[in-house]
């Protein structure tokens, strides 16, 4: 895991992100573009896909 910027809490959990289960076969990139519009693209730290779910962690500024 990359080091967080100064002034950001170093422990990340689901409180710092989201998990959603998709009914359609959407790309992770498409989901992150939509989430990035809400939280800011520069704040997204990591993302992954497992089965039909997409999860991402982001920094709260």
**Number of DSSP-assigned strands:** 3
* Mean pLDDT score: 76
- Give the terminus-to-terminus CA distance: 19 Å
Succession of helices and strands: EHEE
- Estimated radius of gyration: 12 Å
Approximate helicity band: 10-25%
Structural class of the helix and strand makeup? alpha+beta
Spatial shape: globular
Largest sheet: 3 strands, antiparallel
How much of the sequence lies in strands comes to 25-35%
In which order are the strands of the major sheet placed? 1-3-2
Q: Report low-confidence residues grouped into runs of 5 or more.
A: none
Number of helices: 1
Word description of this protein:
With 61 residues, this protein is an alpha+beta fold. It has 1 helix and 3 strands; from the N terminus they run βαββ. Strands 1-3-2 form a 3-stranded antiparallel beta sheet, covered by helices on one side. The longest helix is centred in the middle third of the chain and has 12 residues, at 28-39.
Summarize the structure.
By secondary structure, this protein is α+β, with helices and mostly antiparallel strands.
């Amino acid at each position: 895991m990359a080091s967080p910027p100064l002034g950001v809490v170093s422990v990340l959990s689901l409180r710092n992100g989201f998990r959603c289960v998709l009914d359609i076969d959407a790309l992770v990139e498409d989901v992150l573009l939509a989430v990035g519009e809400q939280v800011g693209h520069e704040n997204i730290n990591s993302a992954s896909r497992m089965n039909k779910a997409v999860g991402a962690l982001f920094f709260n500024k």
